């Protein structure tokens, strides 16, 4: 059982169709997804483009679903959207049972990089431990992809990937780790117990602090706060084992 | 004073002409260079191609210089060459005063990536501390490039880059570190005092162990064994302050 970590989306290569890919975008897409699902959202639909997000939300509403439209460009909310991609903002809204359509830059690009994988999960520090337990049970090769920011490596993504590797190694004796996986695990070890400090020191974290999103960093730093892995199923991100039927909507 | 670390040569970008670039290729090019210069070689000339290496060696010999031709492809020595790129092998030869022509795959590619920098150094664990002290005195932005192996990140390069960042930070209060620099420093911290263990666990290290080059790993793991930085001067890698005149040979 091999574990590979790509420290930036651009170096992800093509995951093996037998492998499980895990996309990590701690600030803020995958933390936002975990927060939404933790709070009972039916599912999150990641889409790359803004106009696609509008079309999809309209189609879902026509089918009678309760929908919220969320996303950002350059870290800021979009005109006409219900929500940005701030996890803290999300806690002020009732999302239970709703379908959330999300468009973000780095997170969606990273999802595109792993389209060849047999199964795709998304993880953040909030559910890295739960994700590791799921992967340990699956006993398939693991291909973690850190989204990074605008083509640059992001400390917080490497940290979360490393925590996932660490928990996976604890669950699977003799886990085969790539150099990228070992680098990530070292980062998690170096900052263990100081995750919030790491996020505040990180380039992207500092930018978000400047924009007034400090509460998001606090939410993003909460390691293993939630006990569910999140999987991409017919285009929707949902907690594993969430049940229910998939909506019939055209497109991705 | 900013410090940036590219964890693979491919993500190096274009270093600022004002910056100092530092290329790291612990297994084995930059360890080999440090070993050769430590043992009194006049200088090391890195060249990308095998035929260029032959031509340059012939031209230097015609000028009356004592020359050794060194290099590898796929980790193995080349036919007609005097040496491979094994640092341990180098200690069996008298290199004092000689001009060494070296062709390697990853190390030379990484040097090509930083051609735009105002000054280029090469570092390994053997002289990372000395390199950091030189950089601290220079007070210019630092752009460290880990060579990696065949486009993949190499644990040992990240480790050495991290040790350099750590020593630089100790010498320069308030050093501005990129996320890549922080990742590298965390790797160095996680393996501190166990550098040889890290090299033995690394993908490239394991391959070299299989090929019988275990002694090279031991030499490569010796942190701060040598007190001189190495700089590229008119195409030659030489210890800083080595003095002497540059040979007149066409082309790099």
Structure characterization notes:
Chains A, B: This is Probable 2-phosphosulfolactate phosphatase. Chains A, B: Keywords: Hydrolase, Magnesium. Chains A, B: Belongs to the ComB family. Chains A, B: GO terms for molecular function: 2-phosphosulfolactate phosphatase activity; magnesium ion binding; sulfopyruvate decarboxylase activity. Chains A, B: Its EC number is 3.1.3.71. Two copies of one chain form a homodimer. The two termini of chain A are 30 Å apart. The first copy, chain A, is globular, with a radius of gyration of 17 Å. Chain A has one domain: putative 2-phosphosulfolactate phosphatase, CATH 3.90.1560. By secondary structure, the first copy, chain A, is an alpha/beta fold. In chain A, α5 packs across α6 (155-171) and α6 crosses α7. Mean pLDDT of chain A is 92; it is low at 244-252. A seven-stranded mixed beta sheet of chain A has the order 9-1-8-2-7-10-11, with helices on both faces. A four-stranded mixed beta sheet of chain A has the order 3-6-4-5, sandwiched between helices. The first copy, chain A, has helices spanning 29-38, 50-62, 87-90, 106-113, 128-138, 155-171, 179-190, 195-201, 203-210, 214-220; strands spanning 2-6, 20-24, 43-46, 67-73, 76-77, 99-103, 119-123, 142-146, 176-177, 230-233, 236-239. The A-B interface holds A 7-8, 10-11, 152-155, 158, 178-180, 182-183, 185-187, 189-191, 201-204 and B 7-8, 10-11, 152-155, 158, 178-180, 182-183, 185-187, 189-191, 198, 201-204.
């Amino acid at each position: 059982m091999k574990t590979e970590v790509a420290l930036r989306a651009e170096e992800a290569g093509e995951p093996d169709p037998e492998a499980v890919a895990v996309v990590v975008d701690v600030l803020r897409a995958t933390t936002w997804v975990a927060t939404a699902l933790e709070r009972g959202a039916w599912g999150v639909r990641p889409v790359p483009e803004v106009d696609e997000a509008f079309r999809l939300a309209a189609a879902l509403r026509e089918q009678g679903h309760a929908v919220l439209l969320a996303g950002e460009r350059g870290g800021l909310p979009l005109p006409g959207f219900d929500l940005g991609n701030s996890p803290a903002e999300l806690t002020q809204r009732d999302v239970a049972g709703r379908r959330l359509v999300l468009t973000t830059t780095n997170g969606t690009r990273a999802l595109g990089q792993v389209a060849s994988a047999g199964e795709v999960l998304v993880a953040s520090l909030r559910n890295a431990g739960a994700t590791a337990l799921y992967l340990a049970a699956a006993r398939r090769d693991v291909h973690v992809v850190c989204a990074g920011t605008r083509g640059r490596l992001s400390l917080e993504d490497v940290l979360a990937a490393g925590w996932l590797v660490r928990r996976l190694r604890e669950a699977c004796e003799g886990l085969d780790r790539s150099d990228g996986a070992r680098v990530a695990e070292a980062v998690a070890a170096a900052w263990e117990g100081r995750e919030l400090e790491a996020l505040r020191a990180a380039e992207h974290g500092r930018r978000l602090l400047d924009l007034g999103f400090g509460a998001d960093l606090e939410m993003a730093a909460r390691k293993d706060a939630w006990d569910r892995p999140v999987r991409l199923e017919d285009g929707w991100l949902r907690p594993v084992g969430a049940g229910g039927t998939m909506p019939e909507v055209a497109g991705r």
